[in-house]
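Data card: per-record layout.
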Amino acid sequence: GVLAILFIPQRSESGKNAIRWVSMVISTLVFIVSLRLYFDFDPDVAGFQFLEKYTWIPSYGISYFMGLDGLAFWLVLLTTFLTPITILSTWTAITKRVKEFQIAMLVLETAMLGTFVSLDLFLFYVFWEIMLIPMWLIIGVWGGERRIYAAIKFFLFTAVGSFLMLVCIIGLVYFHNQQTGELTFNLLSLYNTNLARMYEILFFGAFALAFAIKVPMFPFHTWLPDAHVEAPTAGSVILAGILLKMGTYGFFRFAMPLFPDGSAFFTPLIIVLSIIGIIYGAMVAMVQPDIKKLVAYSSVSHLGYCMIGLFVLNRHGVEGSILQMINHGISTGALFLLVGVVYERRHTRMIAEYGGICRPMPIYASIFFLITLSSVGFPTTNGFIGEFLILLGVFEVNKAYAVLAATGVVLGAIYMLWMFQRVFYGRVSNPKNEKLKDLNRRELAYLLPLVAMVFWIGLYPNFFLNKMHKSADHFISQVKISAPASPGAVVEHHAFVYDKTPLDVSSAKE
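The structure for this 510-residue chain is written out next.
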């Protein structure tokens, strides 16, 4: 797709449209092809499937090694689903440097997919770093007035964490080589590396910092509001919908199973910070005058649930966490698209500039209301299922944590419904709002699939959960932690045993 776009001139409007169509068709084909994963995926296999392994740099034990389990599986489908939707939304929003923008989008999709399927730590790190470049350009070139500041802040935050992670990857490979005589970046082999507790704590801390910045967890979240506000709508959708999931994915694929002692040591802190993030994000969102910034802070709150679900380490919590990642990508992605629709018409995101727009835009208001219900976790929507499973998992471990986390649900309903009331109800106080046009066919084409997903997951969650059960149970068995009864309690850490059989290349489904 990138090669085809390179040879299309963009001097004329027809050339720009051709570039858009090539990007749209390629990303749609990728989504259609990825659907086969669902039908070929065996839910009874706990380990990785669709394995591909080719030697890349043999002298350093680096290989092109990829595979999927039931947890990463849905993140791949989320990526291929959201990308064409996002590209369709840029048809009229991105009018300058269209070729460069569409190339950035396709490269970004490739890097995101590579990150989710890499089973070689060097390959994972390459894709992890490649993601930075197109996202940095999308914010810095096509963003708002303070785009350079936001892009540099995004880059620096992520780069610092990534550098520390690289140092620890090299350290882990070194220790594995000392123990086994094997120089490899193969994740399945590195799972078996025995480290002293001090090194596990240090290595987990470095990995956790890189991933916590990407989530982002409190207090590493300060880059996110700036990036969201200054990014174009498409950038915000990809950032919230997929890129933030790289952080939570990193915890359950790398940090926790590689360094179980380190994970046990940091679990009380991560749970406390997650709960603070849930409440803090909701309270700050409540006072935001900018719709986009409100949605940005809501992400800090929602992803706190994903983190606490992972670290309570029971099936309800882990599966709820993965499902909530998908839900957040769909619901928050839809919210950013909806904000982008009205921004294209009015060129303002300030809540005070609106009011009563449900009259000139009834279809838009209806879809916004449904997505709002999803965001607040209303029963029958996807948001309810994810949050319910997470809170149930937390309740099984510690009732006090569950009560504190549940306050985020209440606060979320307050700030989202209050925002909706101010934007859509009341009289039309601004004459410019009286002439606003409702959604056109193109806008409906990229919004309705998201609405459908909201209710599909909400009404039939087992379609999605059934693929996760075995992988979730295996992940929990890799890192067995009894969650502490209080922030200062001692964490019980059981011996980490890596069972090669379900993950061994020879026994996995290809």
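Known properties of this structure: Strands lie at 49-57, 62-68, 481-482, 492-493. The radius of gyration is 22 Å.

See the next section for split statistics.
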